[in-house]
Amino acid sequence: MPISQLRRERIKSAVDIAHHINDTEAAIDVALEMMGGLIQAIPAARRSCKVSAAEGQEAIDAVLEAALGLNQARRKLGVDAHGAFLVTSGRIGVPETSFGSFPEKSASTETVELVKAA
Known about the structure:
mainly alpha; 3 helices; 77% helix; rod-shaped
């Protein structure tokens, strides 16, 4: 495979992975937002129903543990995986860029042109 074709294939793969990462990060963010609503609703329901604070504590513990798990997933994907992919992209000659549907992320013109050419 010629080097230019290999480079285009690597960039195309990187773009695909970046889109999957961004979509997954967005899903985790939505889950965290929903989890926040759940965490807020639990004590409000307890108060309005006049239930002892001891009732359902195991359930609250489980919800908070799940929230921590979501946070850890966000960190592993959004920080650790991104950093690892950045190192890998440098090793294989893929330019550092940002991709995705988030307003703060935009693809570089060079990379977009390289992918279009592929």
